Every structure is written in C-alpha cells, then in structure tokens.
Amino acid sequence: MRPLLLVAICAILAVRAPDRAQADTPYLYLGPQISTLGFGGEVGVRVNSFIGVRGGGNYFAIDFDQEFTDIDYDVDLQLASAGGVVDIYPLGNGFRVSGGMRWNGNDADLKAKPNGSIDIGGTTFNSTQVSRLRGNVDFNDFAPYAGVGFQSGFFGNRVEFAFDLGVLFQGDPDVDLDADGTLANDPTLRARLREEEKDIEDDLEWLGFYPVAALTVTVHF
C-alpha cells in the first residue's frame, strides 16, 4: 500500500503543480519542513519555469539503546545539517530534479557500561578492567545531495506543498572508541577497541548514502 500511496501523492502534486505562466514570474517562498534529516525550514526562489534555488536547515536529537557486536550502547543521536540546492524543472511544471551541497553535522555519541564481563574484539574483560566504553560516530563535514521532487500550489497558489526524495552522500561512518578502567591504556585493549570500531563501522556503512524524504509547506510571496 505504501508504494501506491506515494504514486498517488506524486500524481496529485504533478496535476496541481504551478502552471508555466505563473512560474515565468520569479517568486519567493518559505516555510517549515519535516524530513528524515529532522525538523527545519526552507526558503527558495522559483526563478522561472525551469530553474529554482533553495536553502534551509534541519535539526533533530534523540537518545535510544542499540546493540553492536553484543554490546548494549546508549546512543545519543544528533541530526544537524544545512545547505542549498539548485532545482531543474525539466517539464516546466512542478516536477524537479535537484542537486546541491550541505554542511553535515550528523553524528552520535556512544556509551556502554559493562555489567560484569564484556567481550571486546573477541577478548573478555571484567568491569574493573573496563568500567565504561565511550565513543563517537561521525561523517564527512560536507555532503553532496541529489534527489527528485514535486512542488505544487494550492489556495490560489498562495500556499505550496513540496515532497522530495533523495540521498545525502555523507561518506562512510568514522567510529572512535575509548575506555575507562584499569586497562584503559593497555595495548591489547587498544587493539581490541580498534576491532570494535571496525565492526560498528561495517554495521553502519549503509548510512553513508543517507536516505532523505522531506515534506515542506511554504507561503508564496
């Protein structure tokens, strides 16, 4: 049912897209946005029937538990990004192909407190030797974006709705782990931590091509 719903939404937006005569007159629009990048806002200019530019930013934060390599981590996730895109409207209506660049502050803090023994990289340590694990997951500071979408006007084209699907190419995750405890500086533990980092990076590799779905409601000036 979800693919059918998406097709229906796109069809409605395409039919109700601003007509070419209206788009020939440049206009400004701005408003709130909700997306897989977080909550935010967007401002744009439809230059003419075939070209537009947009800029905006998004933010969202959440804490949750996640298991990596049989270790339970407390994850503090932050989504933060901002940037701009150029829109090409090849049909002269509301359908658009977009490309641009974003500053990328997406990252996550990791924390784990062993309850008894803990296995790190195939070696077992007790809670005295390793009392806590802490680390960070980071991505490239700047990330290209590419996507497609529809922009459509309602209420005499005073209010516009837009739906976009795309990919943020934020690069492979970079995981950095550290430990507290009596073996915090032990070479064997440091080596096992590097293995743990690699395992988590492999688990999160898919996030390098971060999927973006965005719904924006704007006022047209």
How would the blueprint of this fold be written?
Blueprint: H1 2-15, H2 20-23, E1 27-35, E2 38-46, E3 51-68, E4 71-88, E5 95-104, E6 107-112, E7 118-120, E8 123-125, E9 132-138, E10 142-154, E11 159-169, E12 174-180, H3 187-203, E13 209-220
Antiparallel strand pairs: 1-2, 1-13, 2-3, 3-4, 4-5, 4-6, 5-10, 6-9, 7-8, 9-12, 10-11, 11-13
Kindly describe this structure.
There is one protein chain. The protein has 221 residues and is of the alpha+beta class. It has one domain (2-220): Beta Barrel (Porin). It has helices spanning 2-15, 20-23, 187-203; strands at 27-35, 38-46, 51-68, 71-88, 95-104, 107-112, 118-120, 123-125, 132-138, 142-154, 159-169, 174-180, 209-220. The strands form two sheets. The protein has an eight-stranded antiparallel barrel with strand order 1-2-3-4-5-10-11-13. The protein is elongated, with a radius of gyration of 23 Å. The chain starts with a helix and ends with a strand. Residues 1-21 have low confidence and may be disordered.
Q: Main sheet, how many strands, which sense, barrel? A: 8 strands, antiparallel, barrel
CATH topology name, in short, is: Porin
| CATH class identity | Mainly Beta
Strand order of the largest sheet: 1-2-3-4-5-10-11-13
What would the average pLDDT be, to the nearest integer? 88
